Amino acid sequence: MTGLAASKDAQEKTAGKRTTAFVIFLVAAAVRAFFDTLYALKYPHMFTHWGINEAGVIARSLLTSHSYSSPFHDGVGPSSWLAPVYPVIVALVFIFFGIQTQASAVVAIAINALCSSLISVLLYRIGGKLFSARVGKIAGLLWAVSPAVAIMPLVIWDTSVSALLASYAVVLTAGILSSSAQPRVSSCALAGAVWGLAGLSSPACLAPVPFVALLIWQRSKRMNVAVTLVAVTILTLLPWTLRNAAVFHRFIPVRSNFWAEVSYGNLGFENHATGNSMEYQKLGEIAFGDISKQRALNYIRSQPQEFVHKTVRRIGEFWSYPEGGFGLSFYLSLCTLFGLCLMFKAQPWPAAFFAVVLVVYPVPYYVSFVFSRYRYPVEPIMYLSTAFLIDRAGRWLRERRGKLA
Q: pTM of whole model > 0.90?
């Protein structure tokens, strides 16, 4: 009877967790439906019109010319300007709802909203696993109801998809690092595959992978599991990297536009491919990237102090008030810092992992430029850290109230 009772109790707890996760997901979906509908109705030409959306242009090329071609007006030839995951998703939307139609824009926004809503469930799960059910609920609900988070799906870009994939990779990795048992090769292989998929959506998500492998190696004292994670990540990227090598005859792991972004962020957007310069269109993507690299490096060499000044300013902007941050960014960053400091006592290995991700991920943006959506893939970690801080603050207040009583 005792065994049956324990089994029934475990089933009830599992059912309760699933119900809570579903409720949090519904709250997140409802909040996104409200804000996204409100903004889409108020600014229809901004959010439900494809315009010069680069992912939309590549998706159109995939369907009309069966090629992953230039994302810019009057551009011809193959491209690796964008990572492949989101343009492929958009192409699938176009198949069923029309190429660059208003209906397809609405569906793309709905997919983004779905991805964003699912992150709240991941936060609930990992918060409960690492810390407590209370931390999980706080983290999931904070993500669910935050207006700054809720409106991001309106941007028809890889942002929400990248955030979901990165969050899943973070959950898998944190689970490996928090376990007292030796990590299984299969668990590390799955984490590596998800890190790779996240990189094929947004290459910045790949930045923490070498450090993640080092942490897993140090935690487990087994090099094979760390090597497995890195190897599977590389294998996941390999088909796209080989495609780029075959098409462009050079090593391009995911995207070809890094130096162009560095040039734009430091020298201005006068030569941007969506403008009137037509430099990209005349030279082609690879030659344009080479010239952008030369310009950026010449600027850095000739104006090192100015470059450092701009970089420091961008670091501050990334963490204090990215555009469209509703004024929450600075306070969220402070809460993240304090939450991580407290987290090191409760779960040192996952806390170290979270800190590494937050330190390494933004580096490409520090040297180029900062938009609010660039921080989105790592904001789930920030909300989890904030939830941990809130939980600890509540516990401290309850203990203090008990002593005073």
A: yes
